[in-house]
Design a protein that fits this description.
Length: about 450
């Protein structure tokens, strides 16, 4: 907190008050009556919540109220979960609403949760006990109010999808006092009269209180105990009751229940037509195949005398072919024998021819050896001349000498010696000992 003599602006004061309120009062539930309700163009809701002794301004912003499935009106008794805060620009205390529900629904939700937990522990919602619906029901029972709009939707859907199925209506109140007991009794009667092989338990949409009959324990137990599979289509897609959990199949709407309980007649008829066309095509192909086999069999069916004549001609042809093949084999063998005789004659040794060939080869060898020796002699002379030119003695014979220092290294640069150094000079004949008296480096 600032010291007593500190000066705050109004904005700073309101900011500190807002932080103090939000820190000291977390999210909480507040009950009251709605007054002054307005919807801003931005989608936000603004209203006042009051009771007999006080009132408070409330705001429910669009990102929160878009999840509400009902619109509050002035005079509604509601319960809101809200964050107390201060609207800084005007310094007004208000509630920022997160969730809104009808007054008294909190107790209903708690009772619903307790009953759901109890029935779930007993196994009424176990998926293993769910039964499959008949693929083509022989009779469908509809348990609902005789005056409900849902009944008309169901009948229209059944007539469109499966017009052959008879429908029996079991009228019962679906809302109000005593509705749960009436629904349970009607379900028991519909399941035991033996006329229907699937039941549709349907009702249109509404709030939690409107649909509460389908959360009653008697109704849930009647659904679970039904000897006939039950499809539950109560309310809209977002509405879920305990009867939905106990039913063999849950539908999002009454119309959806009628769709799930029946096959699509148009699709089934189209499939029958496709299968009929396929069967007709298969029969046509099989008939064509058998006709071909019959023609082939007819063509092969001949008189025994004709078959014997054909066999006689075939034997004569084979005899001619055998004779021709034997003659051709004889000619081929004679040709092969002549060829082998020629090759044998060609491979016989001839001593005179061998002696002439050997003499000829001997002469060629002597010529090649003489030519090889001449070429090697010429190469040796050339290499000897090159070696003589590279001989150091030949260079020394022309008056040159090799100068070395006392370590034996050849001196080629006057900068590598100093005046007074001892040197040796190798000549063509003999060696000289010398000493550097002077030097010139250019």
């Amino acid at each position: 907190m600032p010291p007593d003599n500190a000066l705050l602006t109004v904005s700073e004061l309101n900011r500190r008050v807002r932080l103090a309120v939000e820190t000291g009062l977390p999210l909480l539930w507040v009950a009251g009556e709605v007054t002054g309700f307005t919807r801003a163009p931005s989608g936000h809701w603004y209203f006042t919540l009051r009771d007999a002794g006080a009132s408070v301004r409330c705001a429910m912003f669009r990102n929160r109220n878009q999840f509400q499935d009902w619109l509050p009106a002035n005079g509604n008794q509601v319960e809101v979960r809200a964050q107390p805060t201060l609207y800084e620009p005007r310094g007004e205390f208000q509630l920022t609403v997160e969730v809104m529900r009808h007054a008294g629904l909190g107790a209903l939700y708690e009772a619903l949760a307790r009953l759901k937990d109890k029935l779930e522990r007993e196994g009424l919602f176990d998926p293993a006990r769910k039964r499959l619906l008949p693929a083509r029901p022989a009779c469908i029972g509809v348990v609902t109010s005789a005056k409900a709009a849902a009944l008309r939707d169901v009948l229209v859907t059944l007539r469109r999808r499966w017009p052959l199925v008879p429908v029996r209506i079991y009228p019962t109140p679906v809302q109000g006092e005593g509705a749960a007991e009436a629904i349970a009794a009607t379900l028991r009667r519909a399941g035991t009269d033996g006329e229907c092989d699937v039941l549709l338990l349907v009702r249109g949409g509404g709030g939690l209180q409107d649909l509460w009959s389908f959360n009653e324990e008697s109704v849930v137990r009647a659904v679970a105990a039904s000897p006939v599979p039950v499809v539950c289509g109560v309310g809209h897609e977002t509405d879920v009751t305990l009867a939905d959990f106990a039913a063999d199949l849950r539908a999002p709407t009454p119309t959806g229940a009628a769709q799930l309980a029946t096959p699509d007649g148009e699709e089934l008829l189209a499939r029958i037509h496709r299968q009929a066309r396929h069967l007709s095509a298969q029969m046509g192909r099989r008939l064509h195949l058998h006709a071909q086999r019959l023609d082939a069999g007819s063509a092969r069916l001949r008189h025994p005398a004709e078959r014997l004549t054909a066999r006689t001609r075939q034997v004569a042809q084979l005899a001619r072919r055998l004779d021709l093949a034997w003659q051709a084999g004889q000619r081929h063998s004679a040709m092969a024998l002549g060829l082998l005789e020629s090759r044998l004659q060609a491979g016989r040794p001839r001593p005179a021819d061998g002696a002439r060939s050997l003499a000829h080869l001997h002469g060629r060898l002597r010529e090649r050896m003489a030519l090889k020796l001449d070429r090697q002699s010429e190469r040796l002379a050339a290499l000897t001349a090159q070696l003589g030119q590279l001989n150091p003695d030949a260079v020394l014979a022309r008056g040159y000498g090799i100068v070395r220092d006392t370590g034996g290294r050849v001196i080629v640069d006057s900068r590598t010696v100093a005046v007074g150094d001892a040197l040796s000079v190798t000549l063509r004949r003999g060696e000289l000992a010398a000493r550097v008296e002077a030097k010139r480096e250019d």
